[in-house]
Design brief:
Blueprint: H1 2-30, H2 35-58, H3 69-96, H4 99-106, H5 109-121, H6 127-145, H7 156-180, H8 185-204, H9 215-243, H10 245-252, H11 254-265, H12 273-290
Helix pairs in contact: 1-4, 1-9, 1-10, 1-11, 2-3, 2-8, 2-9, 3-4, 3-7, 3-8, 4-7, 4-11, 5-7, 6-12, 9-10
Length: 301
C-alpha cells in the first residue's frame, strides 16, 4: 500500500509538471504572453502560497533559513542562480519551441550533473554512465537536426536556451544538496521561488507586458502555480519519502511524456519520428543513471 501510494503521488507530480509546461505554451501561443511576464508572476505567487501553507503548519520556523549568514547566502544564491534561472530558461525554451522539446532538453541536466560529479571526485565515468552521456548527446543531435548536419529542425535560439536550461537544472540540483542537509525540500523550494520571483519583478516588469487576460488565462496561470508548482513538488517530495529517490526519479520522468502528449493533443504541436527517437535517447539516460551502482563495474577506459 505504501509503494502504491508513493508511485501514484510521484506519477501525479510528474504529470502536473508536464501540464505546467503545456499551460505555459498555451499562454505563449494564444494569449500573447511571454516568459518575461509568466516566470516572475509564477515564482512569486507559488513561493508566497507555499510559504503561507508552511507557516500555518510550522509557524515562525519557516524563517530559520535566515538565522545565519551562511544559510542566508545559500538560500539567496539558490533562489537567484538555481530556481530563478532554471525556471526562466525553461519557459523561454518553451516560448521558442514547445513544451515537449523544452522539457526533454532540460532533462539533459542529469547528464551534466554526472559530469560535474565525476570532475569533482576526480574519477572516470563507468561504462553505464558513458552510455548515458552518449545517449544524451545523440538525443540532442536528433532533436536539433533530425539527423542532418546541415540543417536545424528547431531554432538555434530554442536549442541554446534549452541547453542553458539543462545547465541551470544541473546547478539547481547540485546546489540544493547543500541546503537539504539542514532544511527540508518544501521550505527551500518556497523561499527559492519567492526570492527568484521578487528578483525578476523589477528587472522584467511583468505589469508592463500586454497579455490577453480572460478566464482561460487565469485558469492556465492557476494550473501553473497550484498544480505545476505547489502540488507537484509536494507530491514528488512525499513520493521520494515513500519509495526512495531512484524509483521516484524514474517515475517522475513521465513529465516530458505528459508535456509532449499535451503539446500534440491540446496545442497541435507536431513531432517527427526523429523527434521521438531523440526523446527516447534522452529519457533513456534517466533510467540508466537511476540504476543501482555495481561495485565491480569498471570505469570507462
Amino acid at each position: 500500500m505504501k509503494n502504491i501510494k508513493g508511485i501514484l503521488l510521484t506519477l501525479t507530480g510528474g504529470i502536473f509538471w508536464g501540464l505546467s509546461g503545456a499551460c505555459g505554451q498555451f499562454l505563449f501561443q494564444y494569449k500573447e504572453a511571454a516568459a518575461d511576464w509568466l516566470v516572475p508572476i509564477r515564482l512569486s505567487l507559488a513561493g508566497f502560497f507555499l510559504l503561507l501553507i508552511l507557516f500555518f503548519q510550522r509557524g515562525t520556523q519557516i524563517f530559520d533559513v535566515w538565522k545565519t549568514k551562511k544559510s542566508s547566502f545559500q538560500i539567496t544564491a539558490y533562489g537567484i542562480f538555481g530556481m530563478m534561472l532554471c525556471q526562466y530558461t525553461y519557459f523561454v525554451t518553451i516560448q521558442h519551441s514547445n513544451a515537449g522539446i523544452a522539457t526533454v532538453l532540460q532533462y539533459l541536466g542529469p547528464a551534466i550533473v554526472l559530469l560535474a560529479v565525476c570532475a569533482k571526485t576526480r574519477r572516470l565515468p563507468s561504462f553505464t554512465e558513458v552510455l548515458a552521456l552518449v545517449l544524451a548527446i545523440t538525443g540532442t543531435f536528433f532533436l536539433a537536426t533530425h539527423g542532418d548536419l546541415l540543417t536545424f529542425a528547431i531554432s538555434r535560439t530554442a536549442l541554446a536556451w534549452g541547453l542553458l536550461a539543462a545547465c541551470t537544472y544541473a546547478f539547481y540540483t547540485l546546489y540544493s544538496a547543500r541546503l537539504l542537509r539542514t532544511f527540508d525540500s518544501p521550505l527551500i523550494i518556497g523561499w527559492g521561488m519567492l526570492i527568484g520571483g521578487l528578483m525578476l519583478m523589477p528587472l522584467l516588469k511583468p505589469w508592463t507586458r500586454h497579455v490577453l487576460m480572460d478566464g482561460q488565462t487565469l485558469l492556465a496561470l492557476s494550473c501553473i502555480i497550484f498544480l505545476g508548482s505547489i502540488l507537484s513538488f509536494t507530491f514528488y517530495v512525499t513520493g521520494v519519502q515513500l519509495i526512495g529517490p531512484s524509483r521516484a526519479g524514474m517515475i517522475a520522468s513521465i513529465e516530458p511524456v505528459a508535456a509532449t502528449v499535451l503539446s500534440v493533443v491540446w496545442l497541435g504541436a507536431s513531432f517527427t519520428g526523429m523527434d521521438l527517437l531523440g526523446f527516447l535517447c534522452i529519457m533513456s539516460t534517466i533510467f540508466l543513471l537511476s540504476l543501482p551502482v555495481r561495485k565491480k563495474e569498471p570505469p570507462f577506459p
